[in-house]
Structures
1.
Amino acid sequence: MKKLYISLIALLALALAAVPSALAEEKALEGQISIGGTVTMDDIDNDEDGAVGLGTEYNSIIEKNRTWDLSGDLSLRNSQLSLDAEGHYQDGDDQEYGAVASFGRILNYKTNYNRFFHRLGHDELSNLMAHIFKNTDGTEANPAKPAGFGIGSLGDAATVGAAAVYHTDHDPEAEYGVTYSVWNNSVKLNIPQLPGLKIGLDYRSQTRKGCDQARTMSKCSACHIEGYTKSIDETTRDFMPKVGFSFGTVALEYSFLHREFEEDSSDMLNTYNNLAAPKHVKLFSDRLQFDGTNGPLPFNRMPESTKDTHTVKARWDLNSHNTLTAAFVYSKSTNESVDHPYNALLGQFGEEIELESTTLTGKWHSKLRKGLSLTLHGKYQTLDNDEPFVDVVDRPNLTTGAILGDKYGVGAGFWDFERKSGYDLDITSVGLDIAWRVMHGLTLRGGYEFHYEDRENAEYHHVPDDTTAHKFKLSADYRLNHNLRFSLGYKLDLIDDAYALHKAMCTPNSSFGAYAGPKTDLYTFERSYRPTIYEARVAERTNQPDTIHELSFKTNWSPFSLFSTNLYAKYRYAENSEVDGREWQEDLFNGGINLVFNMSEKMVFTAGYNYFNDKTESVYCIAIYDG
Amino acid sequence: MITTDRYGSEHTDMDYRTEAHTIMASAAWNPMPRFSFTANASYTMGRGNISDLEFGHLPAFFQQDLKIWMDTTSVNPNMPHLYDTFYLNDMSSYSNLDFKDMEIEIGASYALTPKVGLGLKYFYSDVEDEEEYVYGSQDVTVQSLMGFVTYRF
């Protein structure tokens, strides 16, 4: 990327070098350059190390005290070339460039580059400290603490029990941030001999480089949360050739997008706590997928992927009042990082995972008569994801050497399964929009859309099989005169079976029970967790509404030429009464006012105020079990 | 010693509210052809909190289960029992949000000649974080001064 900066700066320098001669050519070249510097007078002091406050989250220069500030723009016009370029360099992590060039209107090139720094937070993990107490009355066994268990700030070792949540930050002084950059390029070729033909190539490169915090947690011992520093190095490249052809009233365009996501971030490894020992080793060591006895294991992995997309667009102007447009999109996304050799955390899928998507859209826009237009639109999308095989590890018991499947007479591989994707669904929507200019200054708009989602694997994810939505909208624009204008809008969404999780929680009725079945193995799933925890979860919850009302209002008023104002407000009420327990609700209001005073030709003053209020009402339910 | 598994559920309302007031103002002034002045200021006050989180104590039903109702008064008088949903109520303040953010930008430029100009910009940013979250205090104050020379062609 350094070559890019040098090239862009060299381009700017060459252009500036041509200034004198360009001036002689009747101002064929115009522009300006600005050279400056920034001094940061206050810094984030030591007490505020790592702060990512609102004012500094995207500020790259606050810790560098002195930085250059270089900017410029130029415009070049002659019979063969038209060029507009601009650039701004503030810091290595804060740069922006752009250019548009046309060579004889045959070859058009557009590019822009943006780079900025995003400061990320460092979770101090300090809230992750809690524990049970050692038994004090001697009536219960006091299990030994697992290997790696840390007492530390948890408290007195004599009172801290084995069940605990605690943390280890392996890099507590680290400051995290990622430099984001994106470079867009678009080349279009117009062939004079074939005026209807357009050939183009788009290229986009996006990178994220820096450091972030990676966290992982041991389980089936104490809940030990560990934080590490992870280097981030991600690159996404898009290549998109396209060709378009128009003849008469018909225009067609085909494009092919190939996207590559490369990941060269550091490989994170963690050695987890051992299973709580020694009492639980015999009981649970064959039920775990991994623990500290496996040694260092990978975590926080980001898979590399590719995506190929074919897009066909068509437009047909039937006549001056009617236009048809349609599009077909087919894409295939591939996870390239799942075919590694067997490892307890890598899976054994043996092949890549693919997600296919096919989309058809169509729209008919018609001017029925003067002041009245109708738009009909529809969309169908189907998503199909692979069903990878998940090989659940049949881990030998560390005491007996037997696997759990043998203990229950079901053999190895009993718990293996094919992952049924929640992305396998069909989405259909059709609708219409009407715009009617009732009279001079008054326009009414209305619309309706039917939306339907059909989920193929709903039963595996405990979500509704399908969701149906009816969406209505109505608005009016009224211009009383040149100085006063109103807009009113109302939207209503009615949704059947909004996306929700069945059996999300216990019935919120404070009912309690005691297990009355046969006394078998205390840790047998069928005796304890299934009836008392999982099967007790019968209530459905969601944060998706089944009814939405949204009102909006806006007015612009300019009583005299030196003053204008606009007042705006939006209120949204959403609820879902189909869930169990108390219904879910949301009240959202956003409104404000803007004032503009043109005191004189030499003085402008603006002021504004915005108020935002969002309240959600939900219910919180926890299961209680004798643990 | 009771060995029978005991189970059930407790529930409570959990309302969450976020609120923000933002005031902004700007001015542009050209007192003379060669001199221009701009100023921008904004002030945001944001709050967020959970309310109505009111778990009761575990019912007496669980007193028969020693593993839940273990008496731990001797090690922590504030938590007399091993598990009690009442202890969860303190988390209502855990994710509280309360901050004030002030941003000021003042700039001035002066044209020495039709082609050459001088400029100066001052930035001030101050965030006061009244409720720390997992990232620690977000308090920060930054001031910076930028000067530049512009050449037009």
Note: The mean pLDDT of chain A is 86.
2.
Amino acid sequence: MSLLLSGCDDQENEESASPGSSEPVQSDLAQASRIADAAGAGAIVPKSGGDAPAQGSGDLSVLGSDAGQNQQAFRQRYGLADPSQDQLAGWQEYDARLTAYSNKDADWPYPTAASANWMGATATNGDPLAVEGTTVAVDFNRIPRGSLIYIPALDMYAEANDTGATGTWANTDAGQMDYGANGAGRVDVYNLAGDRSSGQVEQNFQNRVGSEEYGQIYIVHRGPGWKNGGN
Amino acid sequence: MRCRSPAVCLLWWSFICPVVMGQSTETLVTVRGLIQRADPRATVEYCGAVSTRKVDYYLFTLERKELAGIVLVEQRPGTDPLIIDADTSFFPFRGDQEHSVEKPIQAAIELLLRRRNTAKKRRPPEPGSKEPEVCAIGREIDRVVYPISGFRLGSNSSHEILRLLRTGPTLEVDPKSAPPGSIIVSPTQFSPCGPIYLGHAGVVGSDGSIYSADARYGGARTKNFSLTGWLKQFSGKNGSFAFVIHAPSGQNVAGR
């Protein structure tokens, strides 16, 4: 046979149960207990990720000083609790690129196709105000305007009532996972900068969600119907 | 340099002259598309191809969250490419006719994976690590289980792990009520045209969580799943099986 190769991109004891027995005996369980203890020793316990998001931390201060309070108020108003495994399994999960924008960005305020936010607050030009802790800007072609989403990396529910440089994102992210077959596009999380510069906000955010920014989001409800009990 | 066999000569030659390979870019795109459709949410990496006179084989790795695996695609002239094997590891190679490839192909696959891993590693490999591996599910179970029970899997293949557990000194238990210390395994499943459902294996910890190798952390043992979460993710597509390892003869119940 000739081959061509091409390169790449870059003992059981008396006490033990007999075969067919359905229950482990005491010595098996004692050994299993030691194995269970050893399994956890030295293991990595991620803050988030896996199938179980870090729940109930409530710390969204990276998004601005009132972000945590806003998230709590948002949850109370719409009856949102930390999602159970059953809920997560029932929601649509998408790949997304988590990025940050803030009121210190050079293009702020920027006229957008934003829709009313959950507080009903508006800017002088009629655009709704972004609310730190609950507002995200998304590509409305990927996530319908007004949708309710859940971001496990932040343990945060958010309403997709703002939109960003959708066309630019689609071009620059083409080929990346957020614009892949299961991609929700960019999820641009609003931050109130406070004393921080635009760059510091982005750095703080990146430190929080991970240097690669890529993660998962769940669309809890498509469109704004959840505000009227449509969830 | 003297070659010990014609196959080795050709392998060596191919490193020098990859441009003369028969696979076209178009074919590679088609094959890659097959893999991406088979697991749309996975990151697909092309590792290389092996050609014989009649068949081209394409090797890919897949990564999705904590999961990692290998896929082998067969392309015969005039036919659509087909996935002929997919698992968390191909080692040891399966003996069944459906998934087996000839020895020289196996050697070439191992070589491609070694080369891929060497290129990726920033640090020297850990002692005892198997260089062609892309997944460490068996290694991490062995690190926990072997020092206590003397039972060793010695494979990172989800299918081989299931086979070894079924034929080893174990008791199969209901995965829904697997006691702490059980080993749980969900074997990889795939169809020739997709989909691919990568498998996984881990140890049920004292808190009921499952500790398993995580590809995102270089295969380190990680607490990623509750037992319920595992069953939700794997039972439908892969199937889940749990085993308690029998205590060795004469072992004191209270421990050594």
Note: Chain B touches chain A through 83 residues (CB under 8 Å).
3.
Amino acid sequence: MLRLLNKIRRTGIVTESVCANIESQALGLEVKRQIERRFGGSLAIRQIDAGSCNGCELEIRALDNPYYDVSRFGVHFVASPRHADVLLITGPVSRHMETALRRTLRATPAPKYVIAAGTCACSGGEFGVSYASCGAVENVIPVDVKIAGCPPSPTDLLSGLLSAIHAFGSR
Amino acid sequence: MSRFQWLPDYLAGLALEHVVVLDGASAQPSERGPAWHLRLEVEDWSTAARVAATTGCRWAGVWGDHLGDAIEVRACLELHGDYLVLATRVPLAQPVLASHTPYYPAAERLERHLQDMLGVAFLDHPDGRRWTRHQAWREQDYPLRTDFPVHGRISRRTPADADYPFTRVLGPAVHEIPVGPVHAGIIEPGHFRFQAVGEEVLRLEERLGYVHKGIEKLAVGRDAEGLARLAGRISGDATVAHTWAACMAMERALGVGVPARALTLRGVFAERERIANHLGDIGAICNDVGFGFLQSQFSRLRETWQRSQHAAFGHRLLMDCVVPGGVACDVSDDALHLLASQHDQLDREMDDLMPIVDDYPSLEDRLCGTGVLREDDARTLGALGYVGKASGIDYDVRRDHSYAPYDRFSVPSPCLRDGDVAARLDIRAAEIRDSLHLLRQLCDSLTAGPVRSTWPTPMGGSNDVTESEGLGIVESWRGEVLTFVRFDANGLVARFFPRDPSWFAWPALERLIAGNIVPDFPVCNKSVNASYSGHDL
């Protein structure tokens, strides 16, 4: 136990402020305010892999690591679409996931927002439209915001997410 | 390079069974093609597998290739680090071939994949159900046949594959738990069907194929660079290994030499990829039994590791860093020094953290004896990488079928026999240490020079098929990746088949979960961490 506490003490706090790709810290504050006002202080995201290579998942998972700690903005990932405000979708939509994706969207309570994350989700990427793939997410369900990158880095995701929340809030 | 001391025994075994080897002498292994090739009659396909099983060969994959009025089917076998490729030509008029599954249960799903994609029916296969095909194409359509258009023949919405006949376990109090394809975490999609009594899992049946993106079909017609980009997106967490295997296959096909510096850098990328994934997995395994402290610590280590990759090589996952003929970018001496300092730092962090993992009673309680994969099961299913190594399968391509740059070093590879979640975690921890050791040697041995050779422009005109195909075999962080590439006469890809080790890890998961409780499934699954995308293609 002492070893464990010692390690925590020596590691300290590594969480960083999110200025890198965002115009100013003011956006961060504004986002927090919007989450307060529009989402009751917490924004629940249901992530759906609709056919990705799992690269995007690695970077989305990194949002929870101590450096980015996305939960400090009131953002958290939930297990069910029933609990979600936002669907964060990766991958080209494989035809085998087409119906599952539509059903997940249907299971999400309104107001529901859809973010397409990663090059494949935005445009179909390396896979495009084929016998096995529907291509971009917007070919299957309406998309509100796109976050580009192959895969988008956690910073890209974070700034994309925060500007998306800002956009949802001002609607 | 290769020894093949067992091959005469195998050939004698075939002769005893009156199997005629049509062509084998002319296809001996070389620098460009380290595997031995044997061509057989269709009717000898099953006997060849039976004799191979008695010889002790491991079954490593099967793939088909539509050539005119026939389907060329090849199966790959391995023994003592020597690879043998069996080939036969199945006429389209009667596309029937004996199954290898009766002798090699590992062949079960790959044969079903081949059946769905190319329409070869396997005789004596224990499971005739579709596998990769759901509802995106019709039963009589075979996407990998040359006459099947890449856009498919159906334009309607694709319905759910609702009528797939799962196997039921009948009995009082047996209940069924369907899970997925959309799972409860930030993970890939797939369906798990549990048959349970109370908390105990009697049987797990996997239904995969949800992220089938037609990778094998999309590869057709690409040039070398295009194929490397596609290979880098077969499974994002193994992007280096898959790109390397594809490039190795293409380089062998065309006889392209890779500069020494580039080969060493590929080794650096691959070992860094191994460490990054193992760091993430150790944290996630501990998190799945509720120990958040280690998740925080290991995800922190993974993050710093990825950041330095971005700083030194331009990509956090090292995607597209391996290119045909070499690597995409060189690394400066300053960046190398920085990376080297990180090796010692990570060693110290592991010194801090691993004793906590090892000594924590509640971790021991949850991880030891959980999800045991027995050695004979692991061998039967052809388990590779940390799944195999934790269950007594001591195989590592880097050591047993060495390739540059690993042929210059002695590659350590851990092996345990417990086969439980704790053993799979321990293998990962040991591999992190071993890879750090290798990384130091690789970085020290970097010599100045070019990092990319020029890719030959296709001359055209050559119709000799054997002249333009290659096999790439690479140890990814999950184990052996086996990749076949065939170029057409214009230097464009005509066939691409990447076999991820996950093909053998998924059946292992079905086996090792039986008898465990349903709440332990996440940690068992994480300890195996097979790729959905790498499997579904």
Note: DSSP finds 17 helices and 15 strands in chain B.
4.
Amino acid sequence: MAVASTKSVYWRGFRDSVPFIIVVLPFALVFGVLATEAGLNLSQVMGFSVVVIAGAAQLTALQLMSENAPTIVILASALAVNLRMAMYSASLAPHLGPASLWKRAFVSYLLVDQSFALASLKYEAEPEMTLSLKLTYFFGVISPIVPVWYGFTYVGAVLGSAIPSDFGIELAVPIAFIALIGPALRTVAHVIAALVSVVAVLLLAWVPYNLDLIIAGLFGMMAGARVELLLDDKP
Amino acid sequence: MSAADAPVWVIIVILGVGTFTLRFSFLGLLGDRVLPDWVLRHLRYTVVAILPALVAPLVIWSRDGKTLNEPGSLIVAIATLAVGYWTKSTNLAIAVGGFGLAFLLIMQG
């Protein structure tokens, strides 16, 4: 790998991430359709996908906005879903920390599940990569992902405005979430975390301002962390 | 349901800035310092703790929040979860859930 050219590393990143289009495309489409059905206009739908680029958090905000939750609860819940981004940031920092500030800022804006997963695998596998090749690989990885995310949010929004609004989609947002949850349940600790948070949220339904969601989430995280320690079940 | 009653742009901008701050946190501000193990251990479970808490009440209760949801909705939800869990594919799960919902809509007329 010592003589790898910038160009070949860029295209390797690009090719490695092409399969992820299959994950990103339908999710962008689903968000575009559902956000439009929920009453957002085209610029708001696109605003979410361009400013936030985080599908699960965007759907969380959308669901809670539809429930007329207080703004502070909407923000706290959606940001809680994105807490994992801090973990991604921490684990890429030893590799990309020496890059210039604006490059680190650009990487941060583009730090999504797929770019993190591929880049961190690559950096672990080839620790001798130079900083500039690491950045090149990262930008190669993100190149097919982000245009698809923007573009298919737009397609979804246009489709959504063509579907009658009494289409009955109350259950569509939860189903989209459930489709994310199943594959995320990778270990016993993940399953226990999910079960504890479900039981907690059902028992805490009396708590006002949707705070039951935040409290149940914290219980779930504590349960997951505890089980991981007990079973030494590191994902 | 209308999400448009909420201050949409305020939410978009604060959520955008907040998400960027989380992504930039260690890369930008803290350099190569590493989070303590116990913090990382909790962060690993944020998604599987928050998302189920968000959907469980929507799936389990009907719209009045007091009675169980109709069995059709529960079955579609469970099928979506099961397919996602065993295949580890979000797409297959979305496909199953989508077909299930379409089927329910058609059955209701």
Note: Chain B touches chain A through 80 residues (CB under 8 Å).
